[in-house]
Amino acid sequence: MRAVARHPYSRSTVSTSSQPPRSDAFVFFGATGDLAFKEIFPALAGLIRDGLEIPIVGVARSGDLDSLRERARASLAAAGFKDASATSALADRLRYVKGSDEDVETFHALRREIGQAAHPLHYLAIPPALFGPVVTNLQVSGCADGARIVVEKPFGHDLDSARALNRLIHGVFAEQDVFRIDHYLGKEPVQNLLYFRFANSFLEPIWDRNHISSVQINMPEAFGVADRGAFYDSAGAVRDVIQNHLLQVVSLLAMEPPSGHTADAVRNEQFKVVDSIRPLKPEDIVRGQYRGYRQVKGVAPDSTVETYAALRLAVDTWRWDGVPFYIRTGKSLPVTVTEVLVEMKQPPQAVFAENEPPDANYFRFRLTPDCSLSLVARAKKAGEEMIGETVELMALHRDGTGDPPYQRLLGDALRGDQALFAREDWVEAAWRAMAGVLDLPDQPFVYEPGTWGPAEAAKVLRPGDHWHQPSG
Question: N or C: which end of the chain has fewer CB within 10 A?
Answer without folding.
Answer: C
